[in-house]
Design goal:
Structural class: alpha+beta
Largest sheet: 3 strands, antiparallel
Number of strands: 5
Strand content: 5-15%
Number of helices: 9
Strand order of the largest sheet: 1-2-3
Distance between the termini: 102 Å
Shape: globular
């Protein structure tokens, strides 16, 4: 009889051991994390749209809303050299685009020699980082200041320039309206990214940056992606009345 009672009151084994419960929690956490990672960007985008985060005023916003949206952009076939950067001298002053932009954007400019268009030194108030950079030409120092295509060449290629003539691409590649002297590392970090993936760390310049990109895309009839347009509108939302800069 005692034996039967002992068997009757014996505890049932746990449904799971502590290790198994921990593994279950880990799996659940991973599933939740992946789900949030997939849904949060869409939720955030929808929330911004509902709350007016993509509303903006001014000629920059108006111009952006007239640009064609194309989410099927293809970078295949892109060749940076096809834009002929620094290979033309459209204003006939004997200087290539880099020297012209350095002379325009730097202050306290000193030239290599009298009558030369080669900039030897100067000071840049960098729009992308907000830092002041002392430019001195040299093998190890020149790269501190680089010339950025505000609308990157690869971005232009996949948003319309692939169908241009060589002359049209050369015009775009050397257009002062699309060129800025900027901090070298910031330019490298940007690469070919659109506004959907990169904005200047200097938040005070973001509205002007986006407005210039819009101006360039409008001038050359380039397209934008949905993500790029949303990113631009989100920036312009913070600066009502932002104008497209003149040339």
């Amino acid at each position: 009889m005692a034996r039967r009672n002992s068997a009757h009151f014996r505890r049932r084994p746990n449904a799971s051991s502590p290790l198994e419960r921990i593994l279950i929690l880990v799996v659940l956490a991973v599933i939740i994390g992946v789900t949030v990672g997939l849904l949060l960007p869409q939720v955030s985008s929808d929330a911004a749209r509902i709350t007016g985060g993509y509303t903006a005023t001014g000629s920059a916003a108006d111009t952006l809303n007239r640009l064609t949206v194309d989410d099927g952009q293809d970078p295949s076939g892109y060749d940076r050299d096809s834009f002929g950067f620094r290979e033309t001298d459209t204003d006939g002053n004997g200087c290539d685009a880099r020297e012209d932009v350095l002379a325009r954007d730097l202050t306290d400019v000193r030239y290599k020699s009298a009558g030369s268009c080669t900039v030897e030194s100067g000071t840049l108030d960098d729009p992308y980082t907000g830092q002041t950079i002392q430019f001195v030409r040299g093998r190890t120092t020149s790269a501190k200041v680089q010339i950025d295509h505000v609308v990157a060449l690869e971005n232009a290629w996949q948003s319309g320039a692939r169908d241009w003539t060589t002359a049209e691409r050369h015009q775009f590649g050397n257009d002062p309206y699309n060129l800025l002297a900027v901090d070298g590392p910031a330019n490298q970090e940007k690469g070919s990214a659109s506004a959907a993936y990169w904005l200047p760390t200097n938040s005070a310049y973001r509205c002007q940056y986006v407005a210039r990109q819009i101006g360039v895309k409008d001038k050359y009839h380039l397209t934008v992606t949905s993500a790029e347009k949303d990113a631009m509108l989100a920036v312009l939302h913070s600066c009502p009345g932002q104008e497209v800069p003149g040339e």
